[in-house]
Write a structure and sequence with these properties.
The chain is of the alpha/beta class and 411 residues long. It folds into 2 domains: 6-183, VC0802-like (2-Layer Sandwich), CATH 3.30.2130.30; 195-402, HUPs (Rossmann fold). The protein is 38% helix and 21% strand. It contains 14 helices and 14 strands. An 8-stranded mixed sheet has the order 2-3-1-4-8-7-5-6. The chain is elongated. Bound molecules: adenosine-5'-triphosphate and magnesium ion.
């Protein structure tokens, strides 16, 4: 958007480009608030290492990201877009920092509106954190608003649903002006809700389930069951790619890859075909529970949704859960496949998950799996193989891949 008066542009460069990070829920957490804020601050510092950051400060209920001198607008915008993907972030704005001087603040507002591009309406939302600044927020709204109307004659003031909201925040020794906001993923910063162990296939659902738990602040480890040596290791590469995507926003801590093919073969040879899938699943949960103990995880996560396939009927879910003592979280239980696909696209795992790879899911599948398995029948079938010994063997063979995680200090 072009402004009326050239002299109003902040030519003296008395401003500094910053990114403001807003969070909602953290604010609701009462006395835990500062712990959550500090967690988010540290997570962002750790995850933003690829950007020219100097530091991130907590200022008046926001985090402010400061950049190296000379960092251009594009770069701060790229960083803001990235920050919006990090759990705990409700909204991100690119803004300008300037001294507490109404004239400079107005100049910054004009610059910010000019940068925001096409818009027909706006409002100013000023906030004064310190009453030692003599101008009230209402007055700032009016004064800065009037200057904006003058600088951009085509722009109309609109209090309800304006195209642009020009935020002005006056804090103790500076002020911040911003108008472009990007919606963040929300949730809580990872590392603030305990540790979980997710069963991660290379399919569409389980990466979404894991991501949802990470978004609620959990440190998520994962276990992947490979069909190796009965299948190739193709699914392991896909899971690796999925983990790399999740790693970017700090959502995954490790993947333990477990060669499961021989054990499935054994189950397939000894047990009634209709019960195979349930028996595989019960073994998977037991192994996941054991691996969870190694990393201090207190619950398991799967990508199941009610009735999606035969193994995900209510009866089968109950029979599966009977194998472990840990709670099993199923964050997708009430979602339709299309919703899950949309979410996988947003997270960035969909394309990887859409590639076909044989894993233990495709191995030794029965033609007609039981949809209403009976617990006694399942336990009886299981008596045919040495469950405890297998768990030991399989966990001993697990290959652990660690990922960079902002809440875990690893050397
Ligand atoms: P997904 O797309 O997550 O694979 P799905 O709809 O294909 O799910 P199933 O194959 O029945 O459903 O798997 C149900 C859940 O069991 C998965 O969401 C995942 O949590 C777990 N699971 C299945 N296969 C594996 C595997 N090879 N490794 C780890 N977990 C698995
Ligand atoms: Mg699957």
């Amino acid at each position: 958007m072009s402004s009326n008066s050239g002299e109003n542009s902040v030519s003296a460069r008395s401003f500094q480009r910053v990114v403001l990070v807003h969070y909602h829920e953290i604010g609701l957490k009462g006395k835990n608030r500062s712990r959550f804020e500090e967690r988010l601050r540290k997570n962002l510092e750790d995850l933003c290492q690829g950007f020219p950051l100097v530091t991130i400060h907590r200022i008046a209920g926001r985090l402010i990201v400061f950049f190296k001198e000379g960092t251009d607008r594009e770069e701060t915008l790229r960083c803001a877009r990235f920050i919006a993907t990090v759990p705990g972030v409700a909204r991100v704005s690119c803004g300008l920092k300037c001294p507490r001087d109404l004239e400079l603040m107005t100049a910054c507002a004009i610059e910010a509106v000019a940068e925001a591009g096409d818009a027909q309406s706006f409002k100013v939302a000023a906030r004064r954190n310190h009453t030692d600044f003599p101008i009230h927020s209402m007055e700032m709204n009016q004064l800065i608003g009037a200057s904006l109307c003058e600088a951009f004659p085509a722009l109309k003031v609109r209090m309800k649903d304006p195209d642009l909201t020009v935020g002005v925040e006056v804090v103790q020794n500076a002020s911040y002006v911003y108008c472009m906001s990007i919606r963040g993923v929300g949730g809580l910063p990872v590392g603030s809700s305990g540790t979980l162990m997710a069963l991660l296939s290379s399919g569409i659902d389980s990466p979404v389930a894991l991501w949802r738990c990470a978004r609620r602040g959990a440190v998520c480890h994962a276990v992947h069951f490979s069909g190796r040596p009965q299948t190739s290791d193709a699914s392991e590469y896909l899971v690796e790619d999925i983990a790399r995507v999740l790693e970017q926003s700090g959502c995954i801590a490790s993947v333990s890859v477990v060669p499961f093919g021989d054990y499935q073969r054994e189950i397939a040879l000894t047990c009634p075909p209709s019960l195979r899938i349930i028996l595989y699943r019960r073994m998977m949960l037991r192994i996941a529970e054991r691996l969870a103990g190694r990393v201090g995880a207190r619950a398991l996560v799967t990508g199941e949704s009610l009735g999606q396939v035969a193994s995900q009927t209510l009866e089968n879910i109950c029979v599966t859960d009977d194998a472990v003592r840990m709670p099993v979280f199923r964050p997708l239980i009430g979602n339709d496949k299309l919703e899950i696909i949309d979410e996988a696209k947003r997270i960035g795992t969909f394309e990887i998950s859409s590639q076909d790879a044989p894993d233990c899911c495709t191995l030794f599948m029965p033609r007609t799996p039981a949809t209403h398995a009976r617990l006694e029948a399942v336990r009886e079938a299981e008596a045919a193989f040495p469950v405890d010994r297998w768990i030991e063997e399989i966990c001993a063979a697990a290959e652990v891949h660690e990922y960079r995680h902002p809440a875990l200090a690893r050397s």
